[in-house]
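Students often ask what a holo structure prediction actually looks like on paper. The answer is less mysterious than it sounds. You provide the chain, you provide the ligand, and the output is a string of discrete structure tokens encoding the 3D arrangement of the protein together with 1,6-di-O-phosphono-alpha-D-glucopyranose.
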Amino acid sequence: TSDKDTMIKRILAADSNYPVIDRTFSYGTAGFRTLGAHLEKVSFRAGILSAIRAKVSNGLTGVMVTASHNPKQDNGLKIVEADGSMLHPDWEKKAEILINSKNLAQTLYDFDQEFTAHNIFEHRGYVFVGQDTRESSQRLSDALRNGAFFIGSKTINYGLVTTPQLHFLTEKGGKIGQARYDEIKANDYTEFFTAQFQNFLALIKDQSTTKYQNELYLDCANGIGSVQMKKVSELLGTDSDLKVHFFNDDLIPDKLNEECGAEFVHKDQKFPTHFEDSSFRGKKCASFDGDADRLILFYRDENDKLVLIDGDKQFVLISMYVKDLLSKLGITEDQMSLVLVQTAYVNSRATRYLKEKGVRNELCPTGVKNAHPIVLKYDIGANDEPNGHGTIVAKMDKLDQVLAGHMDKIEAQKLRAVLLISNMCVGDAIANILLLEAIMRDLDMSIQDFALIYEENPSRNYKAVVKDRTKFKVIWDETKLTQPIELQEKIDQLITTVEEGKAFVRPSGTEDILRIYSEARTHEQMELLAQQILEEIKTKYKDY
Ligand code: G16
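The corresponding structure tokens follow.
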């Protein structure tokens, strides 16, 4: 129709205002991600794509403008489905087609053909938008909302929110429907999780503690997490059991993730800025990343060494806690199945521990989107990555059926309450710290006890720059390379030279680098193994 043509003409005119970047963008591990300066056109078109996705599903999508843990000059776009989950894989492909299209009009006509039943040019559909604190985020959010507008959709801008918060708000929108979108406020998120935490604490308020530390020293990566966690802290009130001390809570974009945050602490294995002082010895500390979807716990031991509690250990504790409550209630695996899904990065000692404790454990490729389908096969499914991502998802209807008749028991009340502290859409640093605090408080556990639930092998992640990382291909679970096979053979051989050696190489899906994981029984052996692999890549595969 001519309406269609007029709309496309207007879209093309608007699109031409954004600079062309001569490269192909791919959706990657967690959305489009690269230099913020290169993302304006991508954002505009992602706005169009998200609006189309909304129109052909139930009228809503969400988009978060963030590059999470990546350096401040980077930015990215994470697209969220109306049920709060990550963009469907089929739509990742469609997003790539639209964003890289050299003939946008034709691509839009193609979409129109594919979705004739939906009329993608009709004025309807909503996109919920959030952004992190990066300098480029405002501009990209503007471009994104412009894209949605030009294809006839409305947007609701939640401004500075965390990534998991945007997922939560989108899921809420998907549930309550368009007529009530104006009821959804960014603070619904903080209010919800604070209330869930308080509900759990109310169940154990009479339990005295001797080891639980009620003070938390929080490194906020100078990102948006500080704003939202401060709201939680305020809601908890001054007489709350949990007292949070905020550090690296500066919102100056230049400071984002700089020498602080979950990625820095985990990858560099260093104390974040402001935590270097020995006065922190023994205290319970934690780090968020730039968009607060990752959490790392840590403390400074008596020798001033950094002791990390990574995502694996956090979710081993959470899974064990849930398993224990189920078994105390006499609920069997057949009645309520439980799984912990992890990645190739899992420490061999964690795997061994889970096996000993009888917790079902599966591997999946890096990226929450890969864990999700496996998690959904179980009644209660957790997934995590050592870098601090993780969530536990429960089929609450099924749980309620299984728990019926048990609800007079404290274990049943705790199980229900603890699972509700989890952000079931996506891994969430704020929800997870509340969840872990609840468990530590119930178990009267110090951060030192937590670190001791099992002892990891020393391990570390490294990076290597190569000419074209896409030439490095891996098997499904990313534990081995299929190409270049000679490099894999070399790694296989090097692993055998150290005790409990484990190592792999994979191309990053968020940065233009290769990631190298190394693990061994001692720190020296782990470093030796890593250095040999890095050397091999440098000498033979840099220009591969
Ligand atoms: C994203 C993903 C994570 C992944 C990380 C690094 O995290 O959500 O699953 O571990 O990227 O991915 P890669 O190793 O492929 O670069 P975030 O926190 O940056 O959104």
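Residues 29-30, 68-69, 289, 293-294, 366-368, 385, 387, 389, 508-511, 515 surround 1,6-di-O-phosphono-alpha-D-glucopyranose (CB under 6 Å).
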